[in-house]
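testing teh design pipeline on a random one, pls ignore if ur not involved
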């Protein structure tokens, strides 16, 4: 091998090395830029399923159907401090279904059976309408379809259930497919402040 070809090979290695450093630097830069842009979140004032006052409409299922993940990174969350613990919860029961002998609707609203209903406090077995209940959402089953969120509105519900992006699951895609599909422009990247 001649001196000239050895030098060319050396320069080639150096150029590739510089290129890799440059690519690495760009990656770090993009990573920092993504961090500065924040994380994808849902604006509760805009989302048609969450915002109070929006009733009598079809639930928007775009959070469930357009996320790139097989099971969306969006899930329903019940804020217990706001929940009325109603016996006939319109987010748990399909209140349009036939009423059984116990006075409760026979059908459930959640298509994935992701809500568990548990009696709390003193239980009167002879009168289920006289008891209070806790409604717990199973995160492994929920896909963020929003049906329960839309149903938990006044006058029957108190708006305690909302949709949230689970940041431990979300890939924080640069162009979030839900944000592109959202009809209300409710899906946006915001910085999360930690104290
Ligand atoms: S796509 Fe938008 S309006 Fe529809 S449920 Fe998601 S955040 Fe709400
Ligand atoms: S968002 Fe949909 S899947 Fe999740 S608990 Fe509510 S109704 Fe069930
Ligand atoms: S950023 Fe990606 S993973 Fe996260 S909600 Fe949007 S599409 Fe799903």
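output:
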């Amino acid at each position: 091998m001649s001196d000239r070809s050895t030098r060319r090979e050396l320069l080639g290695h150096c150029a590739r090395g510089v290129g890799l450093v440059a690519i690495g630097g760009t990656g770090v830069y993009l990573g920092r830029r993504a961090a500065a842009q924040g994380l994808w979140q849902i604006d509760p004032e805009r989302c048609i399923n969450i915002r109070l006052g929006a009733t009598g409409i079809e639930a928007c299922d775009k959070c469930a159907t357009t996320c790139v993940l097989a099971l969306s990174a969006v899930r329903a969350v019940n804020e217990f401090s706001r929940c009325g613990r109603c016996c006939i919860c319109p987010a748990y029961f399909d209140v349009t279904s036939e009423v059984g002998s116990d006075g409760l609707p026979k059908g459930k609203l959640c298509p994935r059976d992701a809500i568990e209903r548990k009696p709390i406090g003193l239980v009167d077995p002879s009168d289920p309408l006289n008891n209070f209940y806790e409604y717990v959402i199973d995160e492994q089953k929920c896909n963020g379809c929003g049906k329960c969120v839309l149903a938990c509105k006044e006058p029957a519900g108190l708006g305690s259930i909302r949709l949230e992006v689970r940041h431990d699951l979300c890939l924080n895609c640069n162009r979030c497919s839900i944000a592109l599909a959202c009809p209300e422009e409710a899906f946006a990247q915001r910085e999360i402040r930690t104290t």
